[in-house]
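Worked problem 6 (solution included).
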Amino acid sequence: QVQLMESGGGLVQAGGSLRLSCAASRSDFSSNAMGWYRRAPGAQRELVAEIAQGRSTNYRDSVKGRFTISRDNGKKMVYLQMNSLKPEDTAVYYCNIIPPILSWGQGTQVTVSS
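Solution. The predicted structure is:
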């Protein structure tokens, strides 16, 4: 059974930083594009950042220049470095493959206070 475990969230003030981590137990992890998603209160889940097998990346416009996605295939880990956080970044953050066909993990809560 594939598991996705997110960690690293917390409460920070606007302008602060957090680094999220995602551990995947998928055997073919390195062959999948991976993404970080988020769900804000009252909103639908949205893709925030993605990283391909070859490590090319794409970002949602609202996080460009502030967030950086990376991966370590040997450790089956995906990371999201979040800088200059804004209150509108408050959400539960999840990782999944692209497209997100795996069961969702519990996510990690990020709360940015103004």
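Discussion: The beta strands are 4-7, 10-13, 18-24, 34-39, 46-51, 57-59, 67-72, 77-82, 91-97, 108-113.
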